[in-house]
Amino acid sequence: MNNPIPYGRQHITEEDIAAVAEVLRGPMLTQGPSIGAFEKAFADYIGAPYAVAVSNGTAALHLCAMALGVGPGTRVITTPITFSASANCVRYCGGEVFFADIDPDTVLLDVNAVRRLIEAHPRGYFSGIIPVDFAGYPVDMVAFRALADEHGLWLLEDSCHSPGGSFEATDGKTHRCGDASLADLAIFSFHPVKHIACGEGGMITAGTEALYNHLMRLRTHGITNKPGDFTPPYDGEPERGGWYMQLQELGYNYRLTDMQAALGLSQLQRADAMLARRREIAARYDAAFAQTPVQTIVPPANVGHAYHLYVIQTDNRKGLYDYLRTKNIFAQVHYIPVHTMPYYQQQGNQPGDYPLAERYYSRCLSLPMYPTLTDDEQQYVINEVLAFVGR
Ligand SMILES: *Cc1c(COP(=O)(O)O)cnc(C)c1O
Q1: What would the mean pLDDT of 365-384 be, rounded to a whole number?
Q2: Angle separating helix axes 111-119 and 141-151, nearest 10 degrees
């Protein structure tokens, strides 16, 4: 293969380009009609009551941490196997990040490890949990909700990897990733390697109108111009003009542009087809590696994996990574455990703290996984992986 094969890549069609161009020809480049339309369509797709579009997934996490009341002294638990933003949002608000180990079968935050951590401390010590649908494998939010309710904690689901993912719980109900039915809030990213590309972009899904209204205000500096939301006591202006608005708390400018929303909305029309293609690619990898030393994660039948990533585990990971690069295949590693990052070591963590996460990291490799990967390209990737591990 002459063309480099990355681990992930966006797919832009002529329809996407036309949608963006239409916004550019119109009067509103930011906060125009595409924002609300994208929010509504995304909420419908995910099955969430409310959605708030923001400038990126990290901004989404930051606003959620604010809306959930994270501040100095707030303690929050998350997984070491995630993009660092899942943890950083707590630090932005001055809170403290705690980690718990993963379940090696799913590579997701282990609800039993979280329970042990919580129960080793007095009641009220922790405030919330941030589980992550890592690689697109849905977190068992039923189990996390039960644990959170027992201890009075909130849940923020990082669903960046899992739009369209779902699982059937033991109660027979199907839960969609990030639908904010079990989590208080959930977030998504529209970075080009994710399922839906906006360039930069993010979305928060919320289960209640109160959280939705708060997040809408935080997204725009903490300003409201809705008369019904103005806070008394009001002084100074007996007759408010149409210009009147209130800065009610310190927020940010985390708005998405209308061009980005139009691109996201256009991409969303193909979400089901693109997810189906990701699952097809995963099934082919599963079959190809089944009787080989290449370790894969094949979810049980009740799990609707969204396959942001297709991760294999192998003993000579560095060797395989380097070998694939010589073959123009750019596999990637997700993730270096967050607690081993120098910044989080400064916060009191150290290598060795979460041995299952660290062992997973030492063996993991994400193979090319994106809807436009061709069958020939995938076969080439499979052949090269097997050629390397077979020698
Ligand atoms: C991509 C990602 C984020 C951050 O999203 P950005 O849009 O890049 O800011 C957060 N969490 C996870 C798990 C991600 O994969």
Answers
A1: 98
A2: 10
pLDDT at 230 over 90: no
**Rounded-to-integer distance, Cα 7 and Cα 166, Å:** 23
Number of domains in the chain: 2
CATH of the domain at 384: 3.90.1150.10
Which among 253, 268, 283 is the end of a domain? 268
Active-site residue flag, 194: yes
Q: Is 218:63 a contact under the CB 8 Å cutoff?
A: yes
pLDDT in the model for residue 234: 62
Q: What is the pLDDT of residues 15-67, one digit of tens each?
A: 999 999 999 999 999 988 999 999 999 999 999 999 999 999 999 999 999 99
The pTM for the full model equals 0.97
- At 240, the pLDDT band (50, 70, 90 cuts) reads confident
Mutate to test the pocket of ligand 1, among 78, 86, 97, 188 (most ligand atoms within 8 A of CB): 86
Residue 61 Cα: closest atom of ligand 1: 10
Q: Determine the Cα–Cα distance for residues 316 and 310; give it in Å rounded to an integer.
A: 18
| Pair (165, 255) in one structural domain | yes
Say which amino acid occupies 29. Answer: L
Range(s) of the domain holding residue 120: 5-100+107-268
Q: Regarding beta strands 202-206 and 364-367, do their DSSP bridges make them parallel or antiparallel, or are they unpaired?
A: unpaired
pLDDT on residue 238? 66
Contact (Cβ atoms closer than 8 angstroms) between residue 154 and residue 148: yes
Q: How far is the CA of 388 from the centre of ligand 1 (A)?
A: 31
pLDDT at residue 235, as a whole number: 60
Under DSSP, is residue 234 helix (H, G, I), strand (E, B) or coil?
coil
CATH at residue 153 = 3.40.640.10
Structure-token match 């210009």, residue found: 243
Q: What is the DSSP letter of 391?
A: -
Distance CA 63, CA 56 (A): 11
Q: One-letter amino acid identity for 12?
A: I
